[in-house]
Amino acid sequence: MEDKIGDNLLGVIRPVFRIILLLFFLSAIVQDGFAVQRATEVFLSADEEGRKPLEVFDCHDRVFIHAVFSDLKNGTHEASVVWLNPKGRRQDYSNFRFSESNYRVWFWLKLKPAFGGKLLKSFDPSFGMEEFIGTWTARLYLDEKTIVEKHFFVGC
Fold first, then answer.
1. What is the Cα–Cα distance from 111 to 107, expressed in whole angstroms?
2. Domain covering 37-155: architecture
3. Closest CA to 137 of 83, 67, 58
4. Residues 27-85: tens digit of each pLDDT
5. pTM, rounded to two decimals
6. Can you tell me the distance from the alpha carbon of 104 to that of 47, in angstroms, rounded to the nearest whole number?
């Protein structure tokens, strides 16, 4: 008897759960009746030109996040990035305004050693960089809406 009640309850819950998931998915795609704008291409690299996409960086590298936006609505837009360190704390933030409908933007993060780190790095390259070693997160926003979250690893 209990199995039949459980099966009937499960038979009702599954379609309701699917509808909720579908509505959640649609609300993520559509906002205010318009399709949410997304970056057509987002990647990390160690150089300004983005010659080689990377996910693993040396602690002395600069980390760049590149984004290509296409078919944006007319008007001014703001792209921004929040860099979260391995402890999950905000390490840095940058933003840039532009008004083109097709635009390529990049932001970079330079990891700076603690006091004395530059002086002693010739003896130990990781000296003063210990807090930067680990998995980082870069959150890219367009007009205050999250576009993508990229994870990368920094080692020495």
1. 13
2. Sandwich (2.60)
3. 83
4. 443 343 334 455 679 999 999 999 999 999 998 899 999 999 999 999 999 999 999 99
5. 0.68
6. 15
